[in-house]
What does this fold into?
Amino acid sequence: MAKNFSSREENYSQWYNDLVIKADLAENSAVRGCMVIKPYGYAIWEKMQQALDTMFKDTGHVNAYFPLFIPKSFFSKEASHVEGFAKECAVVTHYRLKNDPNGKGIIVDPDAKLEEELIVRPTSETIIWDTYRNWIQSYRDLPILVNQWANVVRWEMRTRLFLRTAEFLWQEGHTAHATSEEALAEARQMLDVYTNFAENWMAVPVLKGVKSPNERFAGAIETFCIEAMMQDGKALQAGTSHFLGQNFAKAFDVKFLSKENQLDYVWATSWGVSTRLMGALVMSHSDDNGLVLPPKLAPIQVVIIPIYRKAEQLGPISEKVDVLTKALKAKGISVKYDSRDSYTPGWKFNEYEFKGVPVRVAIGPRDIENGTAEVARRDNLTKEIVPIDSLADYIANLLDEIQVNLFERARSMRNSFTKKADTWEEFVAKLDEGGFIQAHWDGTSETEQKIKDMTKATIRLIPLEPEPEEGRCILTGNPSPHRVLFARAY
Amino acid sequence: MAKNFSSREENYSQWYNDLVIKADLAENSAVRGCMVIKPYGYAIWEKMQQALDTMFKDTGHVNAYFPLFIPKSFFSKEASHVEGFAKECAVVTHYRLKNDPNGKGIIVDPDAKLEEELIVRPTSETIIWDTYRNWIQSYRDLPILVNQWANVVRWEMRTRLFLRTAEFLWQEGHTAHATSEEALAEARQMLDVYTNFAENWMAVPVLKGVKSPNERFAGAIETFCIEAMMQDGKALQAGTSHFLGQNFAKAFDVKFLSKENQLDYVWATSWGVSTRLMGALVMSHSDDNGLVLPPKLAPIQVVIIPIYRKAEQLGPISEKVDVLTKALKAKGISVKYDSRDSYTPGWKFNEYEFKGVPVRVAIGPRDIENGTAEVARRDNLTKEIVPIDSLADYIANLLDEIQVNLFERARSMRNSFTKKADTWEEFVAKLDEGGFIQAHWDGTSETEQKIKDMTKATIRLIPLEPEPEEGRCILTGNPSPHRVLFARAY
It folds into this structure.
């Protein structure tokens, strides 16, 4: 544990990096751009996975697994997809190493060159739709509601732990439908699933919308997204769900015989969230004392620390803790009792505060006399003396309260970071203050690109049901029927 | 569903392939040697993962994630490891594609050549021990008990679904310890965990032992293994646990300060099981009617099929089924009620038999009158009429009974396939009958290699506690202190 890390105000970016590394979430590896997800970080990701996987299954999806490698030619089949994904990627060209004949270690065997290069998947639409061609003949084979948990690789030039890494972990849903309506409804449903997860598990409020054509997924007709606001005023895309139309079905010749005995191309969606959410989680709630984790995703929800000087004082404390631990576990609450004598209580307080454990309980000899315990909340750093007999119920309620409080706090932050701008000057000035800027846009890709080039801000989303409001584009002055959401983003 | 597939006697190998594909477990993909694990197959793998993951955590392990790519130079650091793994592997040499200037699609960009090639991990000892160097300073940092669920790639020339694929899914445990004894105990503990899983979840009896030097993991001091016997008399290695000594610590310079203030290299283990277990599962229990799944790993444990001619007969059946389903689910039993009218009961019977669902319940109008149901077991294909009111308890017991029966049946099969041979002629003859051959061996690698060259049989294991018995090597006649286990193997 180390407290010598930057404050948010000093250097937000450095604070984030320090926190991720020093809180044992992840670290850089010997391989450029690839991270090691450490056990504490992975435990949070596992909780995310479990919650999402349950939601996917509750909405009728099943898991499957498709190959890591994709033949190079597959990327050429969907015209816009290749532009978006085939460029920066890891290319496998050989399948064997051999001893250097000159005795200089091992070298790539030039005789083991692949006939066709393989791309390490940056996303799996192509290989999956190549597979679906054999799975789908008639409407009876539809819908296909498949999800995959996998690693993917995108050769990013500038990487940051969790937020942008060459390899990352994610889930990608790939569904096939008989009608456009059904596919659209699926894409919308998964946006709702992501929203539910972000808000009720991560305690991160999100805005729902659709992407402008410039920001759309390569190969999609429509990209739905959820956008979150970080503490530094930058937006973060927390999940996307794509309506792919018949693009991939056409590219991979996937047709079905409808109920009406018509041959038609299949309709598709894809949707995904990744370990990037770990970055959003850290940046939404954590503070200058370290991590702050929402109870629903905390690997340890409650830590109990005994306070004692003499060895014989530990026995009675541990007895009480034993009863409390059982009561908490019976409620499905994860508890750690740290009775190590190699560290002081003060060191432990700092350690678990830094690691974002939502509730800390301290029990000393005087507590044993009084039948009490000290309960400290990580979210607002307050403490309370609580009768030990009612502690299990108290903590169960407190965890719920912390979960809600974190969400409310993040929502206030987000709301205070959401502003309107009606002129270019106002737009630029407010952008520099950070946050979402609601502004009018003339609806053209050219204007969006110009605004991006001038300010680094992009359209984060067009609201799903935009409030009609006649206005003038902040850049061109051309008419606009409603506002869209701009921000600088991760 | 399709019954037109080979019988085991006709062609065991074809029977296996047909079954895996037609039962929707997996199929070959467009990428040579890489499989698609289909939802039904993946659901079984998920059950395996859950059971193993719980066992790993119960023995103190945590999960983490390390990079997919390993710098080529890492493989040269552990001398024997490079021989075993770096040869047949996927090599990433470039990180970008570009449009062909001649307009022929996309090509690898020659300007985007990596300075050092990256190997897609065939196993992760090297990258993990390179990481552990920074995690370990003193004995206080030990032990490290980490597991990883991941995909790995080994460029196999001849592949078979699940049994040998270029990419496969697995878990790999990598632990670090302060003493040799502790590391050895860990390696042995994980062998016991694998044994427990194989026998009590997969219902596959296994023999425990150590590998001969020829069959040892590249870089290990000792490789512990469990070996199973398939219905065709061939052995299958179902899991390995390696005591790595200080080999990787020395290769990656991982030292720790002991309690006694001495600087020493760290002791290591690694252990893994893979989607290969899916192959073992299929080949252990299934028959000429299709899959047979042990209840503990069956995605659907009970299927209920209504038998009716007129639509109005379905209502009363469904009512009864509703009560039954709730009672079964309350016992943690997974149930599917297939009331689709687009398929006949006969078709459904075949379908679920083929898919290996352990228990089938059929309920028709006469059953409603009599308060009964027909219960069919997949393992021995017997049927029973059971009072519907006691059905939930009956089925719960039946599932346990089937689990035990499958194990016992597999054990009888294995035992009848285990024979002694004392002469070369006897050895060769019995080998051709299939199964494990207990025979004397002179303990040399040369003899083992000769036997392999002559018969394709390898030493599957040397028993952990071999029964002392003076004998003569079946090939050389040299003295041998105990028998070892030979077999032809997958």
